[in-house]
Amino acid sequence: MNDNSKKMEYGRQDEIEDLSLSPPTMGSMQIAGSNGFGHNIEFMSQAYLRNRSSEIDIEEEIPATSQDRPLPIFLKFADVEFKVKVRNSPSVNPVKSVVSKVAVQLNIEQDNYKQILKGITGSTGPGETLALMGPSGSGKTTLLKILGGRLHENVRGTVTYNDVSYNAALKRRIGFVTQDDVLFPQLSVEETLVFAAFLRLPSGMSRRQKYERVELIVKELGLERCRHTRIGGGFLKGISGGERKRTSIGHEILVDPSLLLLDEPTSGLDSTSANRILQILQGLAKVGRTVITTIHQPSSRMFHMFDKVLLISEGYPIYYGKASDSMEYFSSLRFVPELAMNPAEFLLDLATGQVNDISVPEELFESQETAEFEKYLQRKYKVELEPKEKEENHQALKVPERLQLAVQVKKDWTLSWSEQFTILFKRTFKERWRDYFDQLRLIQAFGVAVLLGLLWWKSSTATEAQLRDQIGLLFYICIFWTSSSIFGAVYVFPFEKIFLVKERKADMYRLSVYYVCSTLSDMVAHLLYPTFFMCILYFMAGFKRTVECFFLTLSAILLVAVTSQGAGELFGAAVMSIKRAGMIASLILMLFLLTGGYYVQHIPKFMQWLKYVSFMYYGFRLLVKVQYSGDQLYECESKSGCRRLQSSPSFDTVNLEGGLREVWILLTMAVAYRLCAYICLRRKINIYNL
């Protein structure tokens, strides 16, 4: 190693030591930008803090004046490889199918895997912005997920954070902004950031300080104009793409992550918005964060904002180093643009083998094959850049022990279980209340109740036929609220899967808190609408006019609805697919409907087990027992005289006395379904990646 390289190495080592020893501050929670922009909390508008419209009250406390920088993280990755298993479609030819199965049994799996990354090496540290560049499908996003600790299977090579391998303690030190902005569409920008602040910021910060932190982020990211606008998405109008991207970044930098990773943060944005995003990232890096972003084709001005560039071509690295040195490196290899060209465009042309306006080395001039250019660049990278990177930044530079220990210390939960529950329940209800109190749902409940009330107007149990009609109404009520509750709950987890995976990867809250908040919040609608429904129908249909019977009937229907909700949650959590969840719910609902005790009372012995697992069976029996008494008389005008209701053929298999057995079974089912749903949800969420 020559004297110059030694001096550079010692200088870098001293820089690492300084970062680990000195506790620099952010200067009154100020995020410094590349153009010097920043806002000091002491000069913030106090009117905003006093006159907030948020539901979370603010305590008047003295604001903090400073906050420590994020923990410095020096990221190193060497010889990173990744392969994905390719599922071959089943062959029509039976001989080929047998041969394929034999090959799998003999572990001949080379052809079943596709190599995505093929030996990527690099490093970056605090204060630096690393850009992962390359054409679509080159493996940029895959590498970003590996560096963020979101991909572990089928990964080879080493990835270290302060010379320590990935561990659970790093979850809350890494911010990950996905290409598709994963934000709740019904919440406003400010609500999104406020709830994130209360869930993720340390419990040592007062409420006022958390609001101040949100205000700072809103101002720094230029979100003042849209702070009260819904995020939107799909068919729901909301903020623009650039504003949504800035909100996603704000959501992650609220907690001062040491390592910030962004997947295509400028995709779909105009040049002005994209440039502003890059300026924000540059400012975030300058206060001590390590920033890594994938980017497809930045403008010339944006390209020069990056400190380092890693250029990938079909999974192979062909350049790693300073962005400002990239043109000089390729010129030394005799790849020179023949006309004025954006450096990023020039690099991408080389990565794709498009060298129409680029002069190339003489030995490659005659060969016009793209593969030859790529192999040449790959060989040069392996000979000239990779050994230098490994020697200077991987072998020579060692991170101080205190920083190595710091990244292994897992942060405690910022809030207790009950505190997380309070905040998350407010957010869940606020995000879903428009669905709960949808006008169509109200009209549906009112319309069906009135229609049934008119069809069964003042029904009675005077004759067997009239009794049969009223029992049919009870069974229909059971069917209506069972299906409504199941289909109201079965799509919840499949729809929110992407949000849940993202927030769980960041350790925002306990999964148990999310599940309890979700089921209790949804339960509001599952209890409110049946109550409204029965208040209209009960007295129109001529059921028993006693207060006790009304409330017992209502309680039985609510118990059926709550149990059905648990079943719907279980079906949704078990498959986490909108299409499959709906299909499974339809099939099981049909099965329970047939074995509910109305259509078929005398079920063959070998099929009787079905009715004992059907909550509709127990719910219908409970409704019948509440509404009728075995000693009640009917058919008094017949020739044979009055008869007891218990003697009716409709109650051959039902003993009208009691009812507590059905109550306990339904309560047990409601709890069991939810426990199984939680277990399925935990298992499914742990295997998903964004």
From TrEMBL:
Domain of life: Eukaryota
Gene name of the encoded protein: LOC105174994
A Gene Ontology cellular-component term: membrane
SUPFAM superfamilies named among the record's database cross-references: P-loop containing nucleoside triphosphate hydrolases
Membrane topology: Multi-pass membrane protein
Full protein name: ABC transporter G family member 26 isoform X2
Domain spans labelled ABC transporter: 75-339
GO molecular function: ABC-type transporter activity; ATP binding; ATP hydrolysis activity
Pfam annotation, one family: ABC2_membrane_7
Entry's localization field: Membrane
Transmembrane domains' residue ranges: 440-459, 471-493, 513-539, 551-574, 581-600
Family, as annotated: Belongs to the ABC transporter superfamily. ABCG family. Eye pigment precursor importer (TC 3.A.1.204) subfamily.
Claim: Transport is one of the keywords in the record: yes
Keyword entries, A-Z: ATP-binding, Membrane, Nucleotide-binding, Transmembrane, Transmembrane helix, Transport
Location of the region described as Disordered in the Swiss-Prot/TrEMBL record: 1-25
Ranges of Basic and acidic residues composition bias in the record: 1-14
